[in-house]
Amino acid sequence: MALRLLLLLVLLAATLLTAQAQGIGSSVSDCCLKHSRRAIPSSWVKSYSIQGPESGCVLHAVVFTTKKNKKICASPTDPAVQKLMQNLDKKVKNDKKDKKKGQSPRPRGRPKRQRRQRV
Question: Are 62 and 50 in contact (CB under 8 A)?
């Protein structure tokens, strides 16, 4: 009987260690494994976040989210990446300022064409 209990405890411990090693129940998200070397057009990007050891990832990176919800990893030391981050910060700050004033953001693109009314 004691042997069965010991075997059950060993099996339970092995299961818990395996689950922990696989990251089950952890809050770690997908981590970037390398940086993209291509230039990222500012018109594609809607937001960014910073990844590093504090978020459970090994590689330091800036993770840009595109308007199509794709993730692009970039080097935080790249001057073009830093400039893009600054532009996004300014845009967010201006959008918040416009909301406080009660103004809607400036409409983009061509206005909708109005139909003629027949008399």
Answer: yes
